[in-house]
Amino acid sequence: MVLRGYVPTSEETLQTLAALRLQSLNSDFSTHAPFPRLEELFPPHVLHARLPPPPHRPPSKCRGARLRAGLLAGGLWGQALAKQRAERDQRLRGRLREEGASTMAAIVEKWKLLQGMGRPEAMAAYMALVREWPGFGSTLFDVDLHASPVGCGPQRLWLGIGAKAVSLYKPGEPEPLDSFCYGRISSFGASDSSTFRLSVEDRDLLFETSQVEEIAQLLNTYLASAGTQRLPQPQEPPTSPPTSEPAVLPQGLCTVAGPWQHQPPVGSSHS
According to the UniProt record, where is the region Disordered (predicted)? Predict the structure, then answer.
């Protein structure tokens, strides 16, 4: 969850989390300890965000200009452009290696400060830092919002579903853009196989997502556990009898409440 960027926090805290994970895995610092790759300790997107964006090339407005550009691309001019791109990519890779080495050195320095800390203490300290995020305990889903509360166009958001409320986050931001307690939600359900509708008082929010069913099931689970009357959904009649089987929480992008000790070890296929 941390490596995939679903815990919005400072880079300093991310480095501390990486050091605590090393302490939990390897105990005290040693040059002979097995050392995982940086991407198994620290979110790679943070390093990529430090790199300069690729140059923007405005589209040609004139058909003749586009034709000339196409002809030139097949000759010497195209070869020159390819060489420039290769040189730029090489510079970016070098810059990325430098940023990675700098970050790894900072993590190691923090790891050295943890000497004497046992594995349970390292795990507890790790979880204490993660719990500082107000959204801790939520299940996050990547969605595209098509009916924005502020009237903007479609935007990529996190839909966070927790025990007490549904929240909308801008990816990477710790505070929600908006939050709705379950008492404010009048209905919800699938408009189609890839669109989830959430009606909050006098407005409808439409989310494009590949996890429509998971979101609906999770909302039903929290409503049932809170003792709230189940809300009707378009894909089933409102009068459907309630099931007597216990609800099972589906997995979203990340279930923040999952225990640390159940996480796969560094280097596994699920890291």
Answer: 229-271
**By percentage, how much of the chain surpasses pLDDT 90?**
45
Question: What angle in degrees, to the nearest 10, is found between the helix axes of 11-26 and 119-130?
Answer: 160
Report yes or no: 176 and 158 within 8 Å, Cβ to Cβ.
no
Distances (CA, A) of 86 to 14, 81, 83, 89, 210: 32, 9, 5, 5, 36
**Distance, CA of 21 to CA of 16 (rounded, Å):** 9
Rg (CA), the chain: 24
Contact 190, 219 (CB under 8 A): no
State how far the Cα of 232 lies from the Cα of 220, in Å rounded to an integer: 10
Task: Tell me if the pTM is above 0.90.
Answer: no
Six-digit token string for 196: 């989830």
b (16+ CB within 10 A) / e for 207-243? bbbebbebbbebbbbbbeeeeeeebebeeeeeeeeee
For residue 40, the 8-state DSSP code is G
Residue 251 pLDDT > 80: no
Domains of the chain with CATH codes: 2-51+89-132 (1.20.80.10), 139-229 (2.30.29.30)
Residue 62, CB-side half-sphere exposure with 13 Å CA sphere: 4
Half-sphere exposure of 210 (CA within 13 A, CB side): 2
**Number of other residues whose CB lies within 10 A of the CB of residue 103:** 20
